[in-house]
Amino acid sequence: MSNKKKIIHLIQSLDNGGCENMLLRTLPLLSDFEHAIITLKKRGELAGKFENENISVINIQQGGFFDLPAYLRLLKEIKKINPDVIITYLFHADAIGRIFLQATTKIKIIPFLRTTYNHRNYWPARLFEKLTKYFVKNYLANSESVKNFYVENIGVKREKITVIPNGVDVDFYDKIERDEVLRENLGIRPEETAIICVANLHINKGHKYLLEAFENIYKENNNVKLLIVGDGEEKENLLKQIENYQSKNNILFLGKRNDVPKLLKISDIFVFPTLFEGMSNAIMEAMASGLPIITTNIPENKGLIEDNKTGILVQIKNSAEIKNSLKKIIENQEIRIKIGQNSKEKIQNQFGLNKIAQKFSNTINYLIKI
């Protein structure tokens, strides 16, 4: 019988998102624990990849927040596994962990904070955080900026939050070669600059401002292509936005993809006009690919991007600044190469995957003991 400590990771689903990919990269390295993932709604497209790493995935098929039989199924699975700790990820799992599991089990529940919810549309999430902070003894957070937000805006005591940043395997990205056939299949000509944005199509990701910037850069230089990777509820609005754009035929909505690392390697510039974040996996993966980054000047991004060194920072909701930054990088290959090299070095030196996994392991062992 294994003497390893047991962790349940509770999450809505294992769809292809930043948090889910962070877990896929990290959990196999935490070999001193026995992991089980319980998904609430559905298994998700990444479930099989976790199982290939000998991490069990259990889906309780929750039909809605008031699906009482699903809660009984959840308790049954938890009792069967008998974990030392349950870590919850993202809003739905956080809510169930703090409200239901906290009241029905004696197991330590640790929310892993992934974002700041710093947008007016997300006021219910911020209200939930304020009302339930008294139930939480310890938090994890994926960046200092997320920790600071919860301390300053939610009122969580600083000593309750331990930061475990996302980690990236730079060696993995080094092994991926630029696929000219993929570029050609996407209709990107050799002389064209490929600009890529990888993000779910949610209002807080700021795609609207990138599209405005791209239209304006296209009017000056039509040797550009824009790759939009991701899907979400804003897609219809974004497609409507570009209906009368001169650049619309050079904007490719690629939807969800399972070849994002390859898409990054065939691209020349990464743009991420997000309004708020936690610690962006998308930015980190682009940095590991050696791409120059243009992103927003928000605290969540400044932990990764030093302006004009590892990327270029622009104000939120400012398409003119995005356009000017694109123009600067497109027209100056020396700057493009230098910023890309700097960003890759920063990821390698500060956010290497093995280093982060060790911190994760040490932190969980400590939190289980106290």
**Second CATH tier, the architecture of the largest domain:** 3-Layer(aba) Sandwich
Series of H and E elements: EHEHEHEHEHEHEHHEHEHEHEHEHEHHH
State the secondary-structure class. Answer: alpha/beta
Number of strand elements:
13
Q: In order across it, which strands form the biggest sheet?
A: 3-2-1-4-5-6-7
Describe the 3D structure.
By secondary structure, this protein is α/β, with parallel strands linked by helices. The protein folds into 2 domains: 5-167 and 352-369, Rossmann fold; 170-350, Glycogen Phosphorylase B (Rossmann fold, 3-Layer(aba) Sandwich). The chain contains 16 helices and 13 strands. It has helices at residues 18-26, 47-52, 68-81, 90-104, 123-132, 144-154, 170-174, 180-185, 207-220, 235-241, 260-265, 281-288, 299-302, 319-331, 333-350, 353-369, and strands at residues 5-11, 33-39, 56-59, 85-89, 108-113, 139-141, 161-163, 193-198, 224-229, 251-255, 269-272, 293-296, 312-314. The longest helix is centred in the C-terminal third of the chain and has 18 residues, at 333-350. It starts with a strand and ends with a helix.
Q: What order do the helices and strands come in, and which of them pair?
A:
Elements: E1 5-11, H1 18-26, E2 33-39, H2 47-52, E3 56-59, H3 68-81, E4 85-89, H4 90-104, E5 108-113, H5 123-132, E6 139-141, H6 144-154, E7 161-163, H7 170-174, H8 180-185, E8 193-198, H9 207-220, E9 224-229, H10 235-241, E10 251-255, H11 260-265, E11 269-272, H12 281-288, E12 293-296, H13 299-302, E13 312-314, H14 319-331, H15 333-350, H16 353-369
Parallel strand pairs: 1-2, 1-4, 2-3, 4-5, 5-6, 6-7, 8-9, 8-11, 9-10, 11-12, 12-13
